[in-house]
UniProtKB/TrEMBL annotation:
Binds 1 potassium ion per subunit. Its cofactor is K(+). Residues 206-449 form the YjeF C-terminal domain. Pfam families: Carb_kinase, YjeF_N. K(+) binds at residues 62, 119, 152. In the C-terminal section; belongs to the NnrD/CARKD family. It comes from the Bacteria. InterPro entries: CARKD, Nnr, Ribokinase-like, YjeF_N_dom, YjeF_N_dom_sf. This is NAD(P)H-hydrate epimerase. Its EC number is 5.1.99.6. Catalyzes the epimerization of the S- and R-forms of NAD(P)HX, a damaged form of NAD(P)H that is a result of enzymatic or heat-dependent hydration. This is a prerequisite for the S-specific NAD(P)H-hydrate dehydratase to allow the repair of both epimers of NAD(P)HX. The keyword Isomerase applies. It catalyses: (6S)-NADPHX + ADP = AMP + phosphate + NADPH + H(+); (6R)-NADHX = (6S)-NADHX; (6R)-NADPHX = (6S)-NADPHX; (6S)-NADHX + ADP = AMP + phosphate + NADH + H(+). It comes from Sphingopyxis alaskensis (strain DSM 13593 / LMG 18877 / RB2256) (Sphingomonas alaskensis).
Length: 449
């Protein structure tokens, strides 16, 4: 599983708009198809390594990309066959088919697969799952699969959970990634995702997670300028302790854990005499973390209300999200919410669409940055920016890692600057730590040296 770092992600509608803008700037659709087909041919050539190639072409422009790839592969001397679902249905696809001088077989007459199968059947914009009879034909084909743009039979926008009959080993995204490449369950069917630039200027509002930068303090930095984080501890002391330790490990210069007699790290200031209100008045506090290990109740509600009144940047996790919802959008503030699937459903019942759509709607409603956690974590800002963190680390699927993420968000937020950028940096740090540790990870490992 892999996707390019910091790559644009476009829905089907946004991709069509980007293509239209490209045409308006002087590039024809035929030129774009030629570039796409050339990129497919280059990838297929490397994957096949001299073995025969079977290209499956659909009636639309995805099929046209397949015909262009077939022509270019044949010109290189590759052993390439083409099988079509039906005659081309668009002008571009018909022109690409006419330029292919080889034979075209019927897909249902293909007796078997090939060492490499290029899936150029449907691509983006599919409005329904593949029919059962065609799916049965495709499932009997064997070989490695290179999907053109998206595996045929999935919703490229990630709003439906259709599964393709041909699971891709490699998917070559054309011009930009699509939501299906970074959202479950469809991402699992895309295999390794590569990006082919074809000259389209893609909107960067939605993108994949950038590579985690190294955070090296400058020579003039001190503990308070690196960020002071206040963590409000609940009855489950371990959860808040993880969050506080994670804030230090993620780069905060000073961390206070309120409501606990001790902390996981000696450098954390543990205060059991509940100086939370007093600490909220400290101008050096750059971020407040509330929610890890804290069930719903009057005590939590009091803490959330006090934090909201203080105007401090907030990281709200678990039950603290529900407690803050009535007031979050009242006054613009820096805030990051970190719900997992169950917490999101409880806080935002009735949300619909893809995970990206739901995260964006929640961010707009709350005017906060939403880190919608999971194997396909989505980070959404109220202004429409989105970062997709697929693939994450499977080793993070264990208790306490969400508390660690909340603390990391606090560290990044306490430095000042944009809350969305802070959330993106925290998620990147979280995944990078998990990747370094690997098998057997427990949440405590993330906060150890």
């Amino acid at each position: 599983m892999s996707v390019p770092a910091d790559a644009p992600v476009l829905t089907a509608d946004a991709m069509r708009a980007a293509e239209a803008a490209c045409v308006a700037a002087g590039t024809t659709l035929a030129e774009l198809m030629e570039r796409a087909g050339a990129a497919v041919a280059d990838t297929a050539w490397r994957m096949a390594a001299g073995a025969p190639i079977l290209i499956l072409c659909g009636p639309g422009n995805n099929g046209g990309d397949g015909y262009v790839a077939a022509r270019r592969l044949a010109e290189r001397g590759a052993a390439v066959r083409v099988a079509a679902l039906t005659d081309p249905a668009t002008e571009l696809a018909r022109a690409a088919r006419a330029a292919w001088t080889g034979a075209v077989e019927a897909i249902d007459a293909v007796p078997s697969g090939a060492p490499l199968i290029v899936d150029a059947l449907f691509g983006v914009g599919l409005s329904r799952p593949i029919a059962d009879d065609l799916a049965a034909v495709l499932r009997r084909l064997s070989g490695r699969v290179l999907a053109v743009d998206v595996p045929s039979g999935i919703d490229s926008d990630g709003g439906a959970d259709w599964m393709p009959p041909l699971v891709a080993d490699v998917t070559l995204a054309l011009g930009a990634l699509k939501p299906a490449h970074v959202l479950l369950p469809t991402a699992r069917s895309c295999g390794r995702v590569l990006l082919a630039p074809i000259g389209i200027s893609a909107d960067r509002a939605m993108r994949t997670l950038p590579r985690a930068p190294s955070q090296v303090p400058g020579p003039a930095m001190h503990k308070f300028s690196r960020g002071m984080v206040l963590v409000f501890g609940g009855p489950m002391r371990g959860a808040a302790g993880l969050a506080a330790a994670a804030a230090l490990r993620a780069g905060a210069g000073y961390v206070v854990l309120d409501g606990s007699e001790s902390a996981t790290l000696l450098a954390i200031i543990a205060e059991s005499d509940e100086k939370f209100g007093e600490r909220l008045g400290d101008p050096r506090v750059g971020a407040v973390v509330i929610g890890p290990g804290f069930p719903a109740g009057e005590e939590l509600l009091f803490a959330v209300e006090a934090a909201l009144d203080s105007g401090k940047p907030l990281v709200l996790d678990a039950a603290a999200i529900d407690a803050a919802l009535p007031r979050l959008s009242e006054t613009p503030r820096k805030a990051i919410l970190t719900p997992h699937e169950g917490e999101f459903a409880r806080a935002f019942p009735g949300a619909y669409g893809s995970k990206i759509d739901r995260a964006k709607a929640a961010a707009t409603r709350t005017q906060a940055v939403v880190v919608y956690k999971g194997a396909d974590t989505i980070i959404a800002a109220p202004d429409g920016r989105v970062a997709a963190a697929w693939p994450g680390s499977p080793w993070l699927a264990t208790a306490g890692t969400g508390d660690v993420l909340a603390g990391a968000c606090g560290a990044m937020l306490a430095r000042g600057g944009d809350a969305f950028d802070a959330a993106v940096a925290a998620v990147g740090w979280h995944i990078a730590r998990a990747a370094h540790i690997g098998p057997g990870l427990v949440a405590d490992d993330l906060i150890r040296d």
